[in-house]
Amino acid sequence: MTERPAARVLVVRRPGDVVEVRELPDGAVQRVPAGELPAVVRAREHDRPRWVWDDTTRWYPQLLDAGVRVERCVDLRLCGAVLRRSPFVDPSLLRGPDAAGWLGLEPVVPGEPALFPLADPADALDPAAEHARQQAALAASPHRGRLGLLLAAESSGALVAAEMTHAGLPWRADVHDRLLTELLGPRPAPGQRPAVLEQLLAAIRTALRAPDLNPDSPTGLLGALQAAGLPVADTRSWTLEQLDHPVIGPLLEYKKLSRLLQANGWNWLETWARDGRFRSWFLPGGVVTGRWASNGGGALSVPLQVRPAAVADAGWRFVVADVAQLEPRVLAGMSGDTAMAEAARATDLYQGMVDSGAVPTRAEAKVGMLGAMYGGTRGESGRMMPRLTRRYPRAIGLVEEAARAGERGEVVHTLLGRGSPVPTGAWAERAAELGEPPELGGSREDHDRHRRAWGRFTRNFVVQGTGAEWALCWLADLRNRLWRLGAGALADRPHLVFFLHDEVLVHTPAELADEVGEAVRAAAAEAGRLLFGGFPVDFPLDVAVVGSWADAG
DNA sequence: CTGACTTGCGCC
DNA sequence: AAAGGGCGCAAGTCAG
After folding, report:
1. Which end of chain A is more exposed for a tag (fewer CB within 10 A), N or C?
2. Is the shortest CB-to-strand distance from A256 to strand B under 7 Å?
3. A25: cis peptide before it, omega within 30°?
4. CB neighbours (10 Å) of residue A231?
5. Distance between CA A475 and CA A218 in Å, rounded?
């Protein structure tokens, strides 16, 4: 953090398949044929500049394909989105003729047909001007340190995301196929149900005396259940579990296996597991809170059921690491709540709350904290709130204040300055006008319901969003540590292959697995320091060195 | 017929 | 009386 700022080098696409490479702010300009860009970047990378570009998804995949990895960048698309929503920023400094174009710029998705040169909306934008605006906005911010950290972390996340898609998650189609066959029977002809589902279907139809029932139709199923005298209003598994009827067993089994077939069956395997790798793509900043979204193959919800198929290459291992109870720890840190930080000293934060006498049981600690962070006020979690508020006034006070601010229609922000969306809708306009009569549409009750729902959103936003910032810092630091552990191309060194909110998978040569484990822990400690400085809140990790993802945890 | 919405369930 | 945050995905449903 003390080294001199990195040089910045801007790259811009120009007509004629040419890329302009410009030393910032006003340095030399080099024009190179697009095909030669990887070589130019590789050579310039020795000085570890910060590459400035409109959007990582428009530049980095091609560089990676050419074997070029960069250490750092500024992703103007992502940084512009953060800055334009941050309450730490003077919005007038970000105005410009193409400001709307920057906010509307979509990432490009691998596999989409390439746009014709300069048909890309990104090419109507001026990255040099946008970079200057962003720099000015950051410099003028009263929180430029925190915000600068967020921009660096967000940009680094963009590099990680591209690298993970490039490398892919090792995936054994043969293992996956065997697993499906064991559970469902052999792969059926197209349009047919697998044998096991057929048998369950027959049992369901018999038990409900509904010979034509399609259990995949919620409407049809609901009608058949009601016709059989079962008092249900929906067909969710959780609802059905409460019932006592011969159909329930086979029906729940059918739902579970049918879900597996639809979401992660043979079709999924053919679509997403090519050449021994599962390659979805990740969208940093894809969620308003700052969490990542993903596209393709449902990467952020790979069920436990199929994780046995994620198998490290021969001679390689996975290092799987996740943070226990990330969000309550983040809440302790951002609120400066020393009592909660004390509980977080334990590997199990909830048990730490019990051991300090704050709550009687671990179950109550957990449900109480989840309620505090999600806005649950019903039943048990609601009953815990007075107790938690007494014991952890700063932590609970922070989320309560975020909820109240949201209900007033105000913007809240994460620790590093990511702002929540501005609420829209009649209730918010009424909140702004302090109780004007409801010509705006919707009843008073509707407005109150929406207002409370928005308060739950902002309550959660500050914690989920700051958790995402911790995770970004963790990823960014880990990425650089992993690079230093190996030699050669990205895929020859230990490298990240998966990230899921508070969990990472590193694919590593077996002999480096222990060092990777240390790097993962060191990066977590560094993330805690970056966000919370000297405040003593721990982020203990579960780290496993395994051959298959299924063997972690 | 297509497209938008709903339902239900997987993950955190 | 109901009252839990954020997603992606597939199939069913229904309007145009």
Report:
1. N
2. yes
3. yes
4. 8
5. 41
Handedness of CA A479, A41, A138, A99 (dihedral sign): negative
For residues A388 and A395, give the distance between their C-alpha atoms in angstroms, rounded to a whole number.
9
The structure's pTM equals: 0.94
Q: Is A234 exposed, middle or buried (0-12, 13-18, 19+ CB in 10 A)?
A: exposed
Distance A210 CA to C13 C1' (A): 21
> Cα A84 to chain center, whole Å?
20
Query: Residue with CA nearest C7 C1'?
Result: A293
The answer to whether A443 CB is within 7 Å of strand C is no
Minimum CA–C1' distance nucleotide for A233: B7
Cβ of A217 less than 7 A from strand B: no
Strand B nucleotides with an atom less than 7 Å from a protein beta carbon: 7-12
Residues 6+ apart with CB under 8 A from A24: A7, A8, A9, A10, A52, A128, A131
Distance A301 CA to C9 C1' (A): 10
Q: What is the pLDDT of residues A122-161, one digit of tens each?
A: 999 999 999 999 999 999 999 999 999 999 999 999 999 9
In this structure, the dihedral spanned by the alpha carbons of residues A273, A278, A284 and A290, taken in order and rounded to 10 degrees, is: 100
* Tens digit of each residue's pLDDT (9 = 90 or more) over A329-387: 999 999 999 999 999 998 999 999 999 999 999 999 999 999 999 887 777 778 888 99
Q: Is the shortest CB-to-strand distance from A217 to strand C under 7 Å? A: yes
